[in-house]
Amino acid sequence: MEQPIIALAIGVVVGGMLQFAVQLPSLRRAGGHISWRFEPRHPGVKQVGLLMLPSLFGLSVTQLNIFINTILASFLPQGSVTYLFYGMRLIHFPLGMFGIALATAILPSLSAYAAQHDEKRLRETLSFGLRLIFFLTIPAMAGLIALREPITSFLFQRGAFLHKDTVGTATAILYYAVGLWAFAGVRIVAAAFYSLKDTRTPVKMASLALLVNVGLSLALMAPMGHGGLALATAGAAMVNFTGLVWLLRRRLGRIDGRRVGASILKVSGASAVMALAGWYVAGYGSWQVSGHTAEKGLVLASAIVVSGCIYLGIMKLSRNEEMEFLWGLVEGRLRRRPAELD
Asked: What pLDDT score was predicted for residue 286?
């Protein structure tokens, strides 16, 4: 194209359309049907609108924090905005893959139990959702921290993107990744409030987190540069998550905190071992030089595979409940595959 960047915009739009269309056959097989209707006065439309407006703001806080960081980073040395942009893109990969996906999947179950006033099963589902999201995001956090420079070098270090830019982006990844568990945890706890038809509480906590981000950003940007802005965003997410958990616990009485805490300790220990193994294997790569994409890709893939196998192996040997659940899903899917082919 005459302006190649337009192709990226077209790709996003076409990708979104395909993401919608690919789900229609499964929806039809499940008995669902979509038809065009225009009933703006339908009571369901009004109810959804009233519940949706506050939640939109609550879910957009991360984007607002990024926007604030971008403005503040423009006052820092050249390249700071780019480092934060690339760093958050890499954080969004596991967040979208695990956090948003799991929150979307768990909401119908939470809503059903809330409608039935079955607080016991609601608490159990919430507890398992938190344990499962931490099972997935804590090792992702550890992996991003340990492999932040190899990942950045492999993906971006070529042409005008030099090693100093890799270091700058890796710094952003480090401080953003510290809050990955909180970014994902907020999605799960907010879903619990939404299931109770309470969209105001997440908005209030999100507003507080926004103020915390602004305050921390102004305090940390001078001594830490763009790394301070990333750390401020992570800190705001931690405040948001902690506040939501505290308020939900007051509402439900308890949320199985000891069980969640025990799972976090076990997952964190295994993630630390995993990260050390990945960091050791990645040490064989030449991350300071530009190019050499195939060599870097091979070393990085080896580090990810080795560290991933170590983490899953530790979890399997310790008979971790979340690991057993995911392993059961995989086994069930493999058993269904031959039947589907027949």
From this structure: 86
